[in-house]
Amino acid sequence: MAECGEIGMMLGAFEDSELEPNEMQEVAFHLARCESCAAVLADYSTLGRDLRSIAAEPSLAGFSSAVIARVDRLPQPALARLARFLRRQADAVGSGFAWGGAVAAVAVVTIILMTPYAEQFANRGPRSTTSIANTGQEASAGANQVAQAAASEPTMADNDSHADISRLESENHSVAVWSEPRRDTTVIWLPDQP
Asked: What DSSP letter does each residue of the chain carry, written as one string?
């Protein structure tokens, strides 16, 4: 058990709750049994209240702006100024790259979306399209007629041995497609529909 002399030195810290938990418990236990130490603690409490009521609180209006102004007036090392300058430049360059990337992305999307329309506009010149129609014949007979018409028609193969003259394409036997890429001609044969 602690004596009043030891407890008396801990009363100020006890009042401010600055003791360890086991010490707080020991002082509280002692104060419950010792009226003289309890009276000293009451005097500490009264003294603290009186001092707090007497002291005037300083005005803090403009305090933070005054501190910032004084900090700004302090001389800064050259390395700190250089680092701050480089950070500002990096931020500006970074935002420039971001804007440039956004503009490039918009340009790519525009090109992708506009390419089919540009091709249509470029190919609007006069075309010579040859159509072959067959009425009332079987699909295989129509395909044969398309092939014969393609063979009898003069082609660029007469002048160029490397030309892709024509080809018949069809996955469906009732439809025949003949293509002439050099002349930009495509013939599609469809039988009459009942």
From this structure: ---HHHHHHHHHHHHTT-S-HHHHHHHHHHHHH-HHHHHHHHHHHHHHHHHHHHSPPPP-TTHHHHHHHHHHHS---HHHHHHHHHHHHHHHHHHHHHHHHHHHHHHHHHHHHHHHHHHHHHT-S----------S--HHHHHHHHHHHHHHS--GGGT-TT----EEE-SSTT-EEEEETTTTEEEEE-PPP-
C-alpha 125/C-alpha 151 separation (Å) is: 26
Beta bridge partners of 179: 167, 186
Provide the residue type at 31 as one letter.
L
Neighbours of 146 (CB within 10 A): 21
| pLDDT of 20 strictly over 90 | yes
Confidence (pLDDT) at 38 = 92
Rounded-to-integer distance, Cα 149 and Cα 138, Å? 16
Q: How far is CA 41 from CA 10, 79, 127, 194, in A?
A: 10, 56, 110, 114
Band of pLDDT at residue 129, cut at 50, 70 and 90: very low
**What is the rounded distance in angstroms from the CA atom of residue 171 to the CA atom of residue 186?**
16
pLDDT one-digit tens code per residue, 156-174: 444 443 434 344 455 556 6
* Sign of the torsion formed by the C-alpha atoms of 116, 118, 121 and 122: negative
